[in-house]
Amino acid sequence: MCYFSSANAQQKIRIDSLSKTKKSIELPDSTIIISRDTIVFLMDTVIERKQDAKKNGSKFYHAIQRGAYKRKFTKELYKLIFVAPDKMSPTDTLKTERSETAFIIYQGKTIRNIEVRVLEPFGSSLLDTSKVAKTWIERTGNKLHHTSRRGHLKKMLHIEQGDILDAYTLADNERLIRQLNYIKDAYFRVIPVKGSNKYVDLQLWVKDQFSWGANVDLGSRLSTEFEIYSRNLYGLGHEFSNTFHYETDEDQKFGYTGSYTIRNIKRSYIDASFSYENTYEKSVVGISFDRDFETYNTKRAGGFSISKNFRSNKIMDDDPIRNEVPLDFTYSNLWYGRAIKLNSKSLFARRKMFFTGRVAARKFFERPLTTPTLNQFFHNNILYLGGISISKTQFYKSNLIYNFGRTEDIPYGYLAQMNFGYEDREYSHRYYLGFDFQNATYVRKTRSYLFNRIAIGGFFNSRRFEQGSLIAQSKFFSRIRKLGALRFRNFGDLKYTLGIRRFPEEIITINNRYGIRGFKSQEVTGKQKLTLNLETVTFTPYTIGEFKFAYYTFGDLGIIGSNQKHIFKGDYYYGLGFGIRLHNENLVFKTIQLRLAFYPKVPSDFHSAVFRLSGEERPRFNDFNVGQPEVIPYE
Q1: Which of 18, 101, 149, 286 is the most exposed place for a label (fewest CB within 10 A)?
Q2: Pairing relation of β-strands 110-119 and 199-208?
Q3: What is the spatial distance between Cα 40 and Cα 46, in angstroms, rounded to a whole number?
Q4: pLDDT (average), residues 343-354
Q5: Could you give the angle at the alpha carbon of 483 between the alpha carbons of 482 and 488, nearest 5°?
Q6: 472 in helix, strand or coil?
Q7: Which region among 27-36, 114-123, 324-333 has the lowest average model confidence (pLDDT)?
């Protein structure tokens, strides 16, 4: 006698009982592993249907097909909208569920053994591990690829043999591996040990992405970037990136940016990064070491970084001030954090309190002329910050949100932070206080997601409150909707930023990721802004060389002006556009994006229509991770 068991629901169905029913079980592209105890494990895309229902659905489908194929136009329209029932991708049936659901029934058992199995990027599939690379291109790609070492992945886990299985912790580790930027997907299988009610074995199944990638960024103006990189050198997760820049309108036309990252040094969970950049904007070299609060059980985190800027027109990439005088300065940063678990009424709702501290120093060697009241943004300073945070986080699993079919982890919960500190400045000193509250809700009834944030912070000197920031933001994405073979999802982001007694030289913009995508102007600046970004994405089943297609349309609105007037009395700008995104989940390549945008109202230093071909990193969720204490940004 043997049993069928779902890897998620883990519900067993006796085979001898199937003969007594009129139901059948379809296994679309499912992995089947038969162990000694004759348990068969299936993916969570198992579909159970009655034979009669299946026949009726097939008859209906073929009836529409016969009618549509009578004319050429309706035939093409039919192919666009309808997909045969047996042709649907298994990812289309992935239901949104809580991350720990698959492991709850094993809660409290002892982990006897942990095994890691890695699949190559081409040919193989987590849904059907019997698949192999068949074409010459696939086999060659697998040979050029650095397969993730099983020992490396095992060391990345925060669980060991002999630990008591905790459903939330196991889901946490599964998510950690899945988020590595050289892994396509990953999941745990829990296998009961034959003859024991106490022990279980774990199998971590991982699908690699091809480790080498390239990216080109080409705009309407002749400004080009070409990048080549590897995100998994030697199969150890080391990253090596090289970017070559070309700017026709700048004195320094050619530039280079390079970086190298070593992951998880001696299983300390510390990553080391080295970077170098020499472009028309800056010349800088830096090194950093970081350890994050990766899982619920991580107690300590911290980091150290130091950089030397030999030439730069900005202090930081997101600073609002672009300086005419080349800056020469050093920047160093050190932080440490400790986490304490808190009790929660919900069994799988994990709450933690964090205590963090940070010291950051900036020393200028070349800068504009400064006095106590002139160019205060360029004063030498040392900032001491402390933070107290409370977070509660859980995750749902779904797909077709920011990616093209791979499993995505949707965080929900809240994060409340209070940061405070002291800044020792060149001509004075002052104190800092900031509050930040974030909340995310996954509405199961409508299967939509809503994220809200409110944050305010600033400095107090002997006279007044200054250099303050206020941020209010709401983001959402809708449930997935179907139209034949197509899948639709809507996205929205509404954000308001206010600067409170900022320095005279400080401004904000609505350029590109700070407001209207593709928009770029040095003339459009202000002290407060309101932006609205709307987007509709259409995921398609079409592929070219394993690259999946998604079409999107967008509308962006930006209002910007002085903080002395009501925001709606500011200047209005907006952009409308559409584009195509292509992505191959087997590659570490960034998502290829072709975008055409129109801007009905433009300043004198910008165009009304802009075409852009670029590679983009897909957005990530605000996952309520706590890091070093920060000043509320003004951007």
Answers
A1: 18
A2: parallel
A3: 13
A4: 81
A5: 50
A6: strand
A7: 27-36
The reported pLDDT for the residue numbered 73 is 60
* Token reading at 1: 């006698």
pLDDT in tens, 334-346: 999 999 999 877 7
Better pLDDT: 552 or 50: 552
Three-class DSSP labels, 281-307 = CEEEEEEEEEECCCCCCCCEEEEEEEE
Residue 265 DSSP class: G
Q: 554 pLDDT band (50/70/90 cuts)? A: very high
Residue 573 structure tokens: 């700008």
Angstrom distance (rounded) from CA 582 to CA 304:
37
- CA-to-CA distance for 164 and 617, rounded, in angstroms? 37
Q: How far apart are CA 615 and CA 314, in angstroms?
A: 24
- Amino acid letter at 470? L
Q: Tell me: the pLDDT tens digits for 511-531?
A: 988 999 989 888 899 999 999
Other residues' Cβ atoms within 10 Å of the Cβ of residue 12: 12
| Contacts of residue 69, Cβ cutoff 8 Å, sequence gap at least 6 | 75, 78
Distance CA 273, CA 420 (A): 28
Token pair for 333: 């940063």
d(CA 290, CA 271) in angstroms, rounded, equals 5
| HEC-encoded secondary structure of 535-579 | EEEEEEEEEECCEEEEEEEEEEEEEEECCCCCHHHCEEEEEEEEE
**What mean pLDDT comes out for the span 87-114?**
72
Q: What is the pLDDT of residue 287?
A: 97
Classify 23 as helix, strand or coil: strand
Burial label, 603 (beta-carbon count in 10 A; 0-12, 13-18, 19+):
middle
Contact status, residue 481 vs residue 470, Cβ threshold 8 Å: no
Q: Give the mean pLDDT of the chain.
A: 82
Asked whether the CA dihedral 54, 55, 59, 60 is positive or negative, the reply is: negative
Question: What is the per-residue pLDDT across 198-238, written as a single tens digit (0 to 9) for each?
Answer: 999 999 999 998 888 888 887 655 678 899 999 999 999 99
**DSSP string of 139-163?**
HHHHHHS-PPPHHHHHHH-S--TTP
* Strand segments (E) across 324-447: 327-342, 350-366, 381-398, 408-425, 429-443
Question: Would you state the pLDDT for residue 62?
Answer: 64
